[in-house]
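Before the break, one more example. Copy the sequence into your notebook; we will annotate it together after we see the structure.
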Amino acid sequence: MQFPHSLNRNQLPLFDALLSSTAANLQNIGSDCTDQSPAAAHFSEVSLSGAADQCMNLLAPMLRELSDKHDGRWLTLIAPPANLNQSWLREGGLNRERILVLQPRGRQSDFELAQQALSLGRSHTVVSWLHSISTETRNQLENAALQGKAQSLNISLKITAKFDA
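Here is what the structure looks like once it is written out:
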């Protein structure tokens, strides 16, 4: 059975409130972090769970907004998931000229690389995919971000298997 639908009908604004508040928060990420008040936190975390495609579709607008920041510094991605590759960045409309993708070398951990990238101050935002962030780890990333006048954003992905009906 097919249900006729008009192409002129508007889609329900299910996520408008979420997207507008997220966009407002993203405008503050990577801004000059000279204000050291508790309200000017340098560490943020986003938790996404679901099918990989679904999570990546939710992640794209956030990263696109950050890649378009009018800041002379990089949006740095530390050890992103394998499906977040150059073609995904291009298809997602991200400004690849302002994105630096780094992988840890040797015995260096993702955390150590993120901490180093934050403290150097060459990135307005450093995005990491660290699992189970402890309070101590969070504080270390926040201190490194404060030192580098940057923003630390950790993405916690919980990918679930895709079920076919």
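The mean pLDDT is 82. The chain has one domain: 40-159. Try to locate both features in your own notes.
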